[in-house]
Predict the structure of Dihydroxyacetone kinase subunit L.
Amino acid sequence: MRDAQFFRRWMTVAAAAVEREADRLTELDSPIGDADHGSNLLRGFTAVRAALEADSAASPGAVLTLAGRTLISTVGGASGPLYGTLLRRTGKELGEAAEVSDDALRKALYAGVGAVAQLGGAAPGDKTMLDALVPAVAELGTSYRAAADAAENGARATVPMLARKGRASYLGERSIGHQDPGATSAALLLGALADVAEA
Ligand code: ADP
Ligand code: MG
Ligand code: MG
């Protein structure tokens, strides 16, 4: 079973990964975006870390809901509302239980990813974060590491894709040949989850 502390650690490790990789995320967002993905997420996850430190959120659902709400209110770019929705919806699915099973988390994340697809109107193949998130949740039944690997492979698979959503879609054919920054950060989040689950 996974308690609130597990989810706090996930957010802390995710924040550290975003901090470490912020420059790379911004570089990826430069040819096919507006070069702010790293700084957007750095601002967002720094705020998530502070919000969690200041709050006594004591259930998995409360931790993820607070994290999601914080991302929505601090990140101006498309990724803020999208990742915010992912975490908020996942948290809502987990309810108020003090501990949740891996199976409950798998189902909740599946619903969270569905909410991202609904909000952004994107599907796998559109060269977005969903190209990492969708294969990852499909592998969660295997293991957290398998899900993280699927996200990583999904992010790499965005390179030859033509962007159909978000800023990158304005470039049309010129979006081909670049890895999507949001799919790359999604792989970081799943990697952080696997790290925390294996610790
Ligand atoms: P912005 O594009 O507003 O500057 P970011 O740079 O922070 O925001 O985030 C860009 C990322 O958001 C993209 O790489 C893509 O993965 C993701 N994204 C953009 N639009 C959508 C959408 N409609 N659905 C899913 N993901 C999206
Ligand atoms: Mg951007
Ligand atoms: Mg922007």
Q: What stands out?
A: Residues 162 and 173 are 6 Å apart (CA to CA). The radius of gyration is 15 Å. The first helix runs from residue 4 to 32. The mean pLDDT is 97.
